[in-house]
């Protein structure tokens, strides 16, 4: 069946696909579909990033973990991406008193994360899509989408009209495809903003051996009412993100003068002033970004439209799983298309049935990790618990895998990871009780013998 | 300060108000604002209902309870509305085996609900608004809203452009005012559809004394996988609503032939066939409505735009509080304007601060009451609990007020009502435990004496 020829239902060939959004998941899905023999066109509202256009105000440095690595391997693109990546073997915690803490990410060598610039990753994926025969159109901003059983029509702001057998919405948290697909349908939609925002900071490479800017670690500065996270780049510099409340004392709204910014940095992140001499100028010149969680259903419409990544499940960045989960979506959708090649309605329904419960859990975990990064990283009790987690993992192996490890270093479905973690915690509580009871009994016996 | 003259901030007079939506809350708020001396214009996308246009497919019969009654009294409109209303003194439950149950709504004569046609109520409110000097424009469908600090501009689909100092969005669950007000803002938005829908049924007046169509009761038919609720009209007929799952066996999607509908009615609502001889024809000719819960924040923008009723808190109809809570919004907003006459930003912030927690609780209670009406009304244990509630109320008076009574027959804020109900339940559990303990102790003593 050639692309453009009618399918069994008399409509347009379902293998004639328009992907809206040439970001990370849109490009990866385009590659996978092209390899299935589909005709694939990708439409992106921004200019071609390979032509040097900026990517300002977006989180520009991402942590690839197992799910993303697995997806890139599935698409045969892992080596090309890793050539641009910096390894992250653990987390350096910059405590407010100036001390440095360190937690390794796992107990084995494959349990490391890879830091990569969004721009580099996007270029690899765009090139791979073009090599696979995908047609890319930039500066194409979607204005409307007309649903019809036989085909879907995309209308762009420049007047272009495109008909496709299948439309994939990979156009982000404020997806136009989603809004138009769900219009007039009884669709659930939840959008929630964190009352905190963020700005980006560039941190120059440190002196060799300076652990404060270790280029093989993720860096976290937890503070009272603030948080900085930084990823290393391949050139040993770091890209940081400062998270603060949007409003109130100490929030972005109140930090509009050099004096106010300097006072806040000195009070909350003292070692940043040394690492980033121009931190005040950077802070005042960067835009403030917002953080949103999106949950919705349905993710698809009659086998003709389907959503990927942020368009159906935007999460806060605090578990580092936004890109990884979007890549995993592509692999799962690809598997559903394998099993239902002639029936996209069945494929998309299976994809949502498999995936939505997992990404709902990811949204919860990502919100909970914000609290952890903000409040607990500086707590000795919490650090002890993290160490105990890793020690139990070393001792018990696969029978004790910390939740963070399952999320970041395995492809265990998110919801299953949470269930396993809860079972492990229940077992631990039981063991603690049993130990306490046995101890009590022992003391009781010893005291009777002493009588 | 005349309408249209600039306010202190140099913008348009904040007392020059455009209300979008001439439904129940929009009209009531218009009356209250006109009485404060504001210039008020109301814009409604539908035709004037007083000119005989239909109101098809909407829930056309509503239950006024204490909050709505209080709001109408506050506006001086209660008597005019009650002239069109039918009293509902209790609930007749039509059990699947053909038996009838009856629960009075309260223990005193003022604890009754009033059933009124939405159309009649809307006409009273429109007439009252016009008498108070409000300008009404119908067939005016809002296309866009431009936010600016000095004034807000409304653009209508027919090309009309209106500038106002303050805009009130009373345009329902899918509010255009809300969407435009929140555009570009970090706004939380949650929309959730019940997997059940509804159709309306007309039930002719019964023979005098026939309890199956008692014209002074609300009627409920609980069934396995279905629910019918009917309100009486002043002419002794009833207006019913049949609620069913949208999909699956026994859902609306599967009920498209006379045979299928007849079989479903006979199995689930046997006494309806006698009461509504043309129930099958009505069922097949009525459209299926959807039910949505909406929660959102913020409810206002810089003292220039504010939302009312369904536009900021649509709830399922199962507690009968949609209209009542929307009317209560008007009274609360009116009070906030009293306390902050010159500062709408403060008034609107106070309104949301007072009100949002309450309407969030109402959304939860309305969803929980769906389960109650569907599953528990036919359970003997639940009926016993309802009777015990009323008996405790008779015995303990104000120290034991059932939750339903606080919601429907008082103006106790919704969240406070829920807290009181939880405290009462905890006390009851404590009393039950204490009684059991005392009983055990007594038995223990008696058995020792018997030794």
Automatic annotation (TrEMBL), chains A, B:
Its cofactor is FAD. Keywords: FAD, Flavoprotein, Monooxygenase, NADP, Oxidoreductase. It comes from Actinokineospora auranticolor. This is Kynurenine 3-monooxygenase. InterPro entries: FAD-bd, FAD/NAD-bd_sf. Residues 16-333 form the FAD-binding domain. GO terms for biological process: kynurenine metabolic process. GO terms for molecular function: FAD binding; kynurenine 3-monooxygenase activity. It holds the Pfam family FAD_binding_3.
